[in-house]
Design goal:
α3 packs antiparallel against α4. A hairpin with a 3-residue loop joins β6 and β7. This protein is an alpha+beta fold. It has a domain of 124 residues: VC0467-like (3-Layer(aba) Sandwich). It is 17% helix and 34% strand.
C-alpha cells in the first residue's frame, strides 16, 4: 500500500488503484476499485471504476456496422461524472512497466487494441473525477486505500468481487477488512 505523505508532500497516484474504504458505503463508490488514469495535484484526478458492470454491452447502445467489432464488449459504470457519455479504454500488462492503459480512446482505436492479445478493452459510461486537492483530502481522511495494480488484475472478474480480492492482496490487515461483513451490525 502506498503511504500517504504529509500535507506538504505531493501525492503521485497516476497508474495506481484506489480501493474504497468500507466507510464509503453509500452511493457509487461503495466497494469500488478505481484506476487512477490521470493525477496532478494542481489540476485534480481522473479515474475509472473497474468493478461496476452495468449489465450492458456496447451493442446495446451502438448498433451501426462500424461498431460491430465492439458489440460484445462489457460496459461498466466508470463514475458519477458525465454518465451520458460512452468512452473506451484499453488495459494491458507490461512485464517491465506494469499496468499500462489508454483511456478515452476512439472506437477505431478500441478495435485496434482489442486485436492485441492480452489487452482488455472496456467501455465506460461516466468517470470519476476530483478537483485539485480533493482526492488528496480524501486520502488524508482515509476514505481510500491505495495500491499498485498487480499482474493478475486483468484476469480477475471486474465485478464486486474485485474489491475484496484486491484488498486481500495488500496485507493481513486488509484481508480482515475484505472478509468482514458488509454490515457488521447485522451479525
Amino acid at each position: 500500500m502506498a503511504e500517504i505523505p504529509s500535507q506538504e508532500s505531493p501525492i503521485r497516484l497516476q497508474g495506481q488503484i484506489l480501493i474504497a474504504d468500507p466507510s464509503l458505503r453509500d452511493g457509487i463508490f461503495n466497494r469500488s476499485v478505481i484506476l487512477v488514469a490521470e493525477h496532478n495535484t494542481d489540476e485534480g484526478a481522473y479515474g475509472l471504476i473497474l468493478n461496476q458492470p452495468s449489465g450492458h454491452r456496447v451493442g446495446d447502445f451502438l448498433s451501426d456496422d462500424e461498431f460491430s467489432a465492439l458489440a460484445r464488449i462489457a460496459v461498466h459504470v466508470g463514475g458519477p461524472v458525465a454518465r451520458e457519455h460512452l468512452t473506451f479504454s484499453a488495459l494491458w500488462w507490461s512485464d517491465d512497466k506494469g499496468l499500462r492503459f489508454a483511456t478515452r480512446i476512439s472506437a477505431p482505436d478500441a478495435i485496434k487494441h482489442a486485436r492485441n492479445p492480452g489487452t482488455l478493452v472496456r467501455a465506460f459510461v461516466g468517470y470519476s473525477g476530483w478537483s485539485d486537492g480533493q482526492l488528496e483530502g480524501e486520502l488524508r481522511r482515509k476514505s481510500w486505500f491505495t495500491a499498485k495494480p498487480n499482474e493478475h488484475i486483468l484476469a480477475q472478474n471486474h465485478d464486486q468481487s474485485l474489491w475484496s480480492e484486491t484488498l486481500r492482496g495488500i496485507s493481513p490487515y486488509h484481508r480482515i477488512i475484505a472478509e468482514a461483513s458488509e454490515n457488521p451490525f447485522m451479525n
